[in-house]
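Researcher: We're reviewing a set of sequences before deciding which ones to prioritize for further study. For each one, I'd like a predicted 3D structure that I can look through quickly. This is Membrane protein. If possible, include the structure in token form so it fits the rest of the review sheet.
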Amino acid sequence: MMPPHGPPQSAPGMSKTAVAFLFLFIGLAVGFFAGIGATKAGAALLEDLASSEAPADLAHAQSYVRPGFSFKYPGNWRVEADPPDNDPDHHVNVESPGSCMTMIFVLDVPTDPADNVRAQIDGFVPKLLSAPARTPFTTWGKYAGQGMLLKGKLLGLSEGSVRVFSHANDKRSFIAVEQCHDEDMDHVKPGLDLVESSFDFSP
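Model: Here's the predicted structure for Membrane protein, in token form for your review sheet.
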């Protein structure tokens, strides 16, 4: 017998229109942080965030599991997945104790990885990174796709990097964006590597 409200409805995925709004949101967020960095007080705040890193706690790794994907992350990191800024099934931020992070976007449509990477770069440059050095790559974890490593001064303050990658299969796609200051990389890279190596994208 069917429940009184009818058959259960599947959670809506991200349409191509939603993808467009996603890229708009990223652009606005980058612009916000660029505005903070333009003031002396804001620059001091960002520098303080960048200097508050702790070594990634791999001994107490946690798991984040959703129907369409999963990954592990350090015990002293946190996952931001709550609405309205995030979506536990489509947009999560994996944040270190300081200011480094991996952003993961899961799209329920097969988008073009090269277009995804290009759109992300357009959002980050020149607002976050001015004239960065660019190095392409083609794998993230166990997935093949399109990627670009951008290196330069984050918000004009200190050397850092943004790493953008996208993969697509016949039904869905995902985008991963890593951001970190170079001075924090010794503490943070093991955590970034854990998220990347453990990420599993269900067909």
